[in-house]
Structure formats: structure tokens, C-alpha cells
């Protein structure tokens, strides 16, 4: 674009669509047995076509699957790489040296696959020359930036191991007069089976299998026929309630533990500016591959999206259009991208370096940007303004966040 050129891009992405965990295979087998009993009462309200589809349904998983990335997930990651290459051709030239980019993933097959697929898309046959680093996790690892929450004792004890995080889900779905009980009666009627064999937990399994088969095989499986559109919205809400204690601001450690990743983002952008100012050589991109909590926590820590007040079981009919939805905020291959530009003709010297921030490839406004530099119809956040909000994430600054202090549990 006229007057400005991209210097550097930092992308942190969730892995692509994956197979479910091993436990889902056992649930699939359970549904296969149940499918044989459909309409034993002769009163099923499903249409005959849906009943036949359920009876013909086969288990689509096996005991060896364990959250590995699917072929569709590979394509999701390739799509991200292709679109950023088109948007920023200066940072992805055909003859780019592999050492101009840094890659990092957690030590899970799905994130390693995502990293490799992304690298292959931007480097082609030169991928074997690139440094594809896998950050191995472990109890003694304190330097993790991809899954810092796993090494944060305060997060593990006060959030992950806290049974109260399921309280709102239990009230909405499992209590005697909750949605799960009503759904149980409706689904037993639709299937034409005794309500005694349809438990509330089984009802949620129906929804899980419907959702997972759609995500993995990109088709609507026959179990989806059990739900109306309103049912699906309520089940999505129940799923968000199940996750709200893990991934919202219920406890500030849920996002503050992402301090190492936030410092990696801001530190790399700052280093690129300093290298350019001094005429030094600097990389053109950094690419990190992680998980839902990776992206959600650092996004909230940087103020790019707020999960707001924790969802409660009585909030379903309140703010449906505006409430936080984790599946839409961080879907498979969900991502945050930070693009650093140099604008040679900036009116003020301080505005020469500017930043654009993207959430799922859509431009968002960083919280520190009260003004913008306009070039050729594009709006950039001056780097000086951008950093004002993030001093705690600048390595070596007075306010630099301290992971060990954030995660310390007082006796």
C-alpha cells in the first residue's frame, strides 16, 4: 500500500479441526446400541426418513483416535497461510529464506501438524530448512508460552481443579427443573423410547455427537435431527456454561497466566522496530500454534476481546446477540495476527511505525489506540500508542509481568 510497507507479522493460531478424544468412541458405541431400540414404543414423532437414518448410522470413530487433526483441519490452516500471503506478499516472497521465520507449537500432534502445514504453505520445498520448534511441556517447565496455564499452580488449583466452575452448567442443565430434564422428555418422545433409558447425560451425548460429526466430517449426522434450532442454541449455551469457569474472567489468573505469550508478542514486535531503526537484520514473521485457552487468555490479557461477566444459568434470554460465545471467538484455526508497518512519509516521526491487529482475520481496534494514522484508505495504530497499554509485556520494563508471581499460591 502506498507510503507504508509491512515489516513483520506475528500470528498465534489454534490448531485446525480435530478428531474427538478417545472417550467419544465409547459414547458412539453406546449410541449405536441405542439406535437399534428407536421407536420400540411405536410412538416416535421423528419422520420415517430420520428414523431410518438413525437405524443405519454407524460408529465413525475408532479407539486409536485421540484429538489428532483432521484433513479438514489441515485445509483450515492452509487457508490462513494462503490468505495472509495474499494480504502481505512483501513478507512472504517466493525466495524467502526459511530462517526469516520462527515457528513454535505445543507438543501435541494436532498443533505440530498445524505448524508443519502452515510452514509448507509459505515455504514449499524449503520447509525442511526451517526451524520448526516444538515446546515440550512438563512439570518442571516454567518457560512455556503456548500452554503456560499448565505450569501455573494458581490456575490449576483455583480454576481447573475447582468444582464450582461447573455450578452454572449444573443449575441450567442437570437440576430437576433444568433444561436437561425438559430436553430428555422431548427427545424420548421424538425417538419413541421409554424416557427411563434417556438420561440427562445421554441427552448431552446426543448433542456432542451431532456437533462433533458436523465438525469432523463436515456433514450433519442423523443425531442432529433430534434437535430444533432453538434446542441447538440452548445446548450451545449449556456448553459455554460448562467452559465459563475455565476460560473467562471469573478469576483474573485465567488470562493473566498468559503473560509469557503476551511478552513474546509485544517483545518480537518491539525487537523488529529496533532492528529496523538500527539497520540490523530481523525476521519477517513468527508463528505460534496452540489451543483454545492459549488464544482466549492472551486475547483477553491484551484487551482485544472481553469475555465479560461469567455466564450464569439464568442469563440465557438476556443479551443473546451480545453474549460471549467461545466457539465463535476461538473456532478451530481461530487466530490473532499482529502486523507491523513502516510508513516512510509519516507526518510525525513517532508515527513511522504502526500496527494492525486481526482477530480471525478481521481488523480489530487495540484498546490503546485513541488515534489512527491513515494511509491510502487504511488505518494504522501508531506503535507508540500501541505500546502504551502494554508496558507490562515489554521485556525489561519496570512494569514487566512476572509469571511466577502471578501463579504463586499463598499458603
Automatic annotation (TrEMBL):
Record Pfam families: His_Phos_2
Main localization, broad class: membrane
Catalyzed reactions: 1D-myo-inositol 1,4,5,6-tetrakisphosphate + H2O = 1D-myo-inositol 1,4,5-trisphosphate + phosphate; 1D-myo-inositol 1,2-bisphosphate + H2O = 1D-myo-inositol 2-phosphate + phosphate; 1D-myo-inositol hexakisphosphate + H2O = 1D-myo-inositol 1,2,3,5,6-pentakisphosphate + phosphate; 1D-myo-inositol hexakisphosphate + H2O = 1D-myo-inositol 1,2,4,5,6-pentakisphosphate + phosphate
Domain of life: Eukaryota
Any one of the GO CC terms: plasma membrane
Keyword terms of this UniProt record: Cell membrane, Disulfide bond, Glycoprotein, Hydrolase, Membrane, Signal
EC number: 3.1.3.62, 3.1.3.80
GO MF annotations in UniProt: acid phosphatase activity; bisphosphoglycerate 3-phosphatase activity; inositol phosphate phosphatase activity
Cellular location(s): Cell membrane
Cysteine-cysteine disulfides: 4-343, 152-401, 210-224, 369-381
Name of the protein in its database record: Multiple inositol polyphosphate phosphatase 1
Species annotation: Ciona intestinalis
Lineage: Eukaryota, Metazoa, Chordata, Tunicata, Ascidiacea
Gene: LOC100185018
Amino acid at each position: 500500500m502506498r507510503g507504508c510497507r509491512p515489516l513483520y507479522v506475528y500470528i498465534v493460531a489454534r490448531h485446525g479441526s480435530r478428531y474427538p478424544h478417545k472417550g467419544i468412541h465409547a459414547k458412539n458405541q453406546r449410541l449405536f446400541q441405542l439406535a437399534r431400540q428407536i421407536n420400540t414404543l411405536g410412538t416416535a414423532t421423528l419422520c420415517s426418513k430420520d428414523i431410518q437414518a438413525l437405524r443405519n448410522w454407524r460408529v465413525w470413530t475408532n479407539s486409536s483416535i485421540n484429538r489428532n487433526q483432521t484433513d479438514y483441519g489441515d485445509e483450515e490452516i492452509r487457508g490462513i497461510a494462503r490468505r495472509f500471503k495474499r494480504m502481505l506478499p512483501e513478507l512472504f516472497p517466493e525466495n524467502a529464506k526459511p530462517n526469516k521465520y520462527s515457528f513454535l507449537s505445543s507438543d501435541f500432534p494436532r498443533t505440530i501438524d498445524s505448524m508443519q502445514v502452515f510452514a509448507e504453505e509459505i515455504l514449499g520445498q524449503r520447509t525442511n530448512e526451517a526451524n520448526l520448534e516444538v515446546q515440550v511441556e512438563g512439570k518442571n517447565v516454567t518457560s512455556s508460552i503456548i500452554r503456560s496455564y499448565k505450569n501455573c499452580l494458581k490456575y490449576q488449583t483455583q480454576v481447573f481443579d475447582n468444582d464450582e466452575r461447573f455450578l452454572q452448567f449444573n443449575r441450567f442443565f442437570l437440576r430437576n427443573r433444568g433444561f436437561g430434564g425438559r430436553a430428555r422428555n422431548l427427545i424420548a418422545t421424538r425417538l419413541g423410547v421409554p424416557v427411563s433409558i434417556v438420561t440427562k447425560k445421554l441427552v448431552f451425548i446426543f448433542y456432542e455427537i451431532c456437533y462433533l460429526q458436523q465438525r469432523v466430517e463436515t456433514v450433519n449426522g442423523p443425531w442432529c435431527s433430534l434437535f430444533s434450532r432453538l434446542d441447538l442454541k440452548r445446548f450451545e449455551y449449556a456448553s459455554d456454561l460448562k467452559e465459563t469457569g475455565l476460560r473467562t474472567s471469573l478469576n483474573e489468573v485465567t488470562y493473566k497466566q498468559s503473560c509469557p505469550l503476551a511478552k513474546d508478542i509485544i517483545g518480537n514486535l518491539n525487537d523488529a522496530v529496533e532492528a529496523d531503526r538500527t539497520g540490523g537484520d530481523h525476521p519477517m514473521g513468527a508463528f505460534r500454534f496452540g489451543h483454545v485457552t492459549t488464544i482466549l487468555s492472551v486475547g483477553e490479557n491484551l484487551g482485544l476481546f472481553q469475555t465479560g461477566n461469567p455466564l450464569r444459568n439464568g442469563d440465557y434470554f438476556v443479551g443473546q446477540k451480545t453474549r460471549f460465545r467461545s466457539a465463535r471467538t476461538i473456532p478451530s484455526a481461530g487466530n490473532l495476527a499482529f502486523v507491523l508497518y513502516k510508513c516512510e512519509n509519516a507526518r510525525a516521526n513517532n508515527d513511522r511505525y504502526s500496527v494492525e491487529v486481526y482477530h480471525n482475520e478481521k481488523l480489530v481496534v487495540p484498546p490503546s489506540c485513541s488515534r489512527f494514522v491513515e494511509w491510502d484508505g487504511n488505518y494504522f495504530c501508531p506503535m507508540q500508542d500501541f505500546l502504551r497499554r502494554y508496558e507490562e509485556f515489554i521485556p525489561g520494563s519496570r512494569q514487566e509481568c512476572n509469571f511466577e508471581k502471578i501463579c504463586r499460591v499463598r499458603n
